[in-house]
Amino acid sequence: MALTYTPKVGEVLECDFGDFVQPPLKPVYNGLMTPEIRKRRMVVVLNGRLPNGCTMVVPISSSGNPNAVQRGMHVFLDPALFTITSFYDKRNRWALAECITHVSKDRLSQIKDRGAPIPTFLPRDKVIAIQKAVIKAIAASVLLAPDPATAPAPMAGDDKL
């Protein structure tokens, strides 16, 4: 059932992205195609107040990609952050920042177990990590403040500029 409220930043919902067109059409212009995100899956909300009833979401997957993790585009989400349901089991998951998309609220619903909604929110530090990963995914890392742990030490005389 579609959402009837405005989702909050960091809220984990379920999104029905649909499936690939069967049989595949050539050329494909209407419908999903490989490697686009498909099926029913968890998403994290980054903006629930877009115009026209849309919500900005990042899909969550249980398929890790070490290269994408290393490049800062997949954010690890510990199994303890999620409630086990009849559909979702306990496993490692990742937020796929490069797959950020906007969807109609009609595609979104609360995660449920046996019909009962399970409100799920990611901790603030995870939401910030996902937001930073999105910035990296759109090649805008220059907008991020340097990490103090990796920033170069100030040079002598820098304070006189």
UniProtKB/TrEMBL annotation:
Superkingdom of source: Bacteria
A Gene Ontology MF term for this entry? DNA binding
Q: Which Pfam families match?
A: PemK_toxin
Protein name per UniProt? Uncharacterized protein YifN, PemK superfamily
Q: Which organism is it from?
A: Pseudomonas syringae
Show the taxonomic lineage.
Answer: Bacteria, Pseudomonadati, Pseudomonadota, Gammaproteobacteria, Pseudomonadales
